[in-house]
């Protein structure tokens, strides 16, 4: 539509007036430019409520490192969790984090640059890198005064139900754990030893809830894995994580073609660059922040996995509510969530995302939505 000169002047004045009415927080405050990011970290040990047994090991504690990035008086919180099989420890994480110099960056919003720098400091150390990524996301969300599910444009009410993990144990202990997990709509069963059918039969003797299962690479023979997958399908299991050794791509590709359950890569899929290599052999991937180096790469992994037609599961380690809350902001995008890590420990130090009637329930707080708890 043609605009005459008077309309043009009036519209221009309105636009200029609207601009001057914008909140001053949208312009970059001078003090931000003068501030530096101060980075701190603290080793901590999580106590598990129960001895936790999977196909390859048992344990009662998990070492973690808690991180903080302080900028302009605002603190972002992060966490690295190091279950032993990841190859990281208090020592390796604190050594890595000692090398991280965030004071060289003037603008915390330049997350791509900052996290590429952190990633470049070592080849592995994915949990240590995640602890910086999570603290930076928390900080940036707080500077924007928005939770990450809003920044990503997600509906937090679409967060899924989380499964609750039942570790490998004797039938009476398994029965007890299943009863304690009454609130959860989905149970995740750890398999991969010679008691697999006994585990399933024990659980099925008390509940008909849908089950997911995780063999943690415990099955050695693909025909045995094939038979177990059919058995699990007949017993109400809806998907299976990592049946066999992560290196055995041919066996997983064969199982994908010849069995009825979705087969999810966990140990076989760590980071974004792994997805194209494993996509032909699995039906989906299990993303964990401690593998993916944090929230930013995890988001990219979800996008790529979807583009390649893969299912997506969001998992965790035993972690405080800090890392669990961070992951939960991605949960509206996934098919399955296994975010029970903070429920398995007795000495959490954060309040954040919780589980209400089995559903992942996010807080309306900026950043990743955590506050230090009084415990
Ligand atoms: Mg797994």
Task: Provide structural commentary.
The protein has 375 residues and is an alpha/beta fold. It folds into two domains: 136 residues, Enolase-like, domain 1 (2-Layer Sandwich); 223 residues, TIM Barrel (Alpha-Beta Barrel), CATH 3.20.20. The protein has 14 helices and 15 strands. Helix 14 links the parallel strand 10 and strand 11. The longest helix is centred in the middle third of the chain and has 19 residues. The N and C termini lie far apart (64 Å). The site of magnesium ion (MG) has 6 residues, from loops.
Measured distance between first and last alpha carbons: 64 Å
What ligand species are in this complex?
magnesium ion
If helices are DSSP runs of H or I spanning 4 or more residues, what is the number of helices? 14
Compute the average pLDDT. Answer: 91
Quantity of strands, as a count: 15
Amount of beta strand: 15-25%
Q: Could you name the CATH class of the largest domain?
A: Alpha Beta
Rg over C-alpha atoms, rounded to the nearest angstrom: 23 Å
Largest sheet: 8 strands, parallel
Given helix and strand content, the structural type is alpha/beta
The global form is globular
- Helical content stands at 25-40%
Enter the CATH topology name of the largest domain: TIM Barrel
Poorly predicted runs of 5 or more residues: 8-24
Count of distinct structural domains: 2
CATH homologous superfamily caption of the largest domain = Enolase-like C-terminal domain
- Under the CATH scheme, which architecture of the largest domain would be assigned? Alpha-Beta Barrel
**What is the strand arrangement across the widest sheet?**
4-5-6-7-8-9-10-11
